[in-house]
Amino acid sequence: MHIQKKGLIVYDSVYGSTVEVAYWIKNIIGMDQCLDVKPLTQVITVAPYDYVIIGSATRMEKPLKGIYAFVETHRQRLARKQVCYFLLCGDCDETMVLNVPGKPPHLIAGRNYLQDIQKKYPEIRPVVIGAFGGRQVMPRLQKKEALTLWLLEKLAKEGTPWKGLDIWESLIAERVELFANEVREKVLGAPPNTEIERFRSCWQSLQPGSLTDSAKKKYTPKPCFAHEEMAKQYFTRSRIHGDLELGIQLLKQWATACGLELKEQSRTFFNIYYHAVKSYSGRSLTIHIVAATLPEDPGNLHVSFRCYAKKAVRGGAQIDIAAAEEILWADGRKAEPAPAR
Ligand SMILES: Cc1cc2nc3c(=O)[nH]c(=O)nc-3n(C[C@H](O)[C@H](O)[C@H](O)COP(=O)(O)O)c2cc1C
Questions:
Q1: % helix / strand / coil in the chain, to the nearest 5?
Q2: What confidence score (pLDDT) does residue 33 get?
Q3: Does the CB atom of residue 149 touch ligand 1 within 6 A?
Q4: Is 36 buried (19+), middle (13-18) or exposed (0-12) by CB count in 10 A?
């Protein structure tokens, strides 16, 4: 007789968007499945479950503190179960590096925010991880949180996409669907659920992005290609046909050809972060490079370059970045978006 696995989706949320996604995931995994959905304040034990899906909103580049406390409390039991993590967040572009005062430049966004909890509890090895983007309803933010975001807006070098919006969304629906279907496959051994479009209604709402300007959209997808020359930062981003292995090989080839020392900072199954260091006219500069595969864009690799130096001194680095892109884009690998119809 087939014994059905028992599952729990446990979540923590501040404003409720994580709750909507928890039920969306339950719908895709299947209403025929034995799967509880509970806020973490409603969970006293994980003992009855075969698998536990832990979902959270993001605060200051990490899951909420309550999630850490929950994992700490149940760590021994969780280590013996199948565990999955998912995050609602503002940004899920995993090629992002953040450079703000008080911290060295570091990887942010999406699944990068799940690295800390995995390092802290290495005995819990998640079967599936996902980070989907999320929603901010600006007029409803608690005062302190609104202030934090205002400050972030001032510090952000690459701009903040929620500026001027009442509701800002960044969620990529395909990421939620792929996550839930990966759980079906890897935890339940079930085929993907293909009748899933209708469950997007768990998330979609008729409310506009701005009450005063109906032309403003809640969600604008990030462009795959970018090229920005700012006073203290040079930034480019592009997309190639290929996987992470190919990207690594091409970046190594570039570093050797241009005389840069490539220092690996971190590596996961979905991205790699390098510092490429070189002396330009007697001044040592670091180029921050991140290559990432994104779940919603299979078969392509997204690569970002950043150099945090003033225009007057970074000319050599810009030339080297252009050379890197030439190598990455060669042989028809440049994956330009299809022209708008
Ligand atoms: C004060 C504050 C800090 C946040 N910090 C981050 C962050 O560091 N990184 C990120 O990607 N998203 C961040 N977010 C975005 C939220 O994680 C996102 O809006 C999420 O959908 C909220 O989930 P909830 O509605 O379940 O609370 C922040 C939001 C607020 C209000």
A1: 30, 25, 40
A2: 97
A3: yes
A4: middle
Q: What percent of the chain has pLDDT over 90?
A: 92
Q: How is residue 334 annotated by DSSP?
A: B
Helices 17-29 and 173-186 sit at what angle, rounded to 10 degrees? Answer: 50
Strands 62-63 and 34-39: unpaired
Verify whether ligand 1 is closer than 6 Å to residue 15 (CB atom).
yes
Query: With a 6 A CB cut-off, is 134 part of the ligand 1 pocket?
Result: yes
Cα 252 to Cα 16: distance, rounded to the nearest angstrom = 44
For ligand 1, say whether the CB of 60 is within 6 Å of any of its atoms. Answer: yes
**Prediction pTM value:** 0.96
**Mean pLDDT across 4-16:** 98
DSSP for 240-297, written as a single string: EES-HHHHHHHHHHHHHHHT-EEEEEEE-SSEEEEEEEEEETTEEEEEEEEEE--TTS
Provide the b/e sequence for 307-333 (b: ≥16 CB within 10 Å). Answer: bbbeeeebebbbebbeebbebbbeeeb
pLDDT value at 157 more than 80: no
* pLDDT in the model for residue 60: 93
C-alpha 211/C-alpha 41 separation (Å) is: 35
Domains (ranges, CATH) in the chain? Answer: 6-202 (3.40.50.360), 226-329 (3.30.310.80)
| pLDDT on residue 340 | 64
By alpha-carbon position, which residue is closest to atom 16 of ligand 1?
A: 89
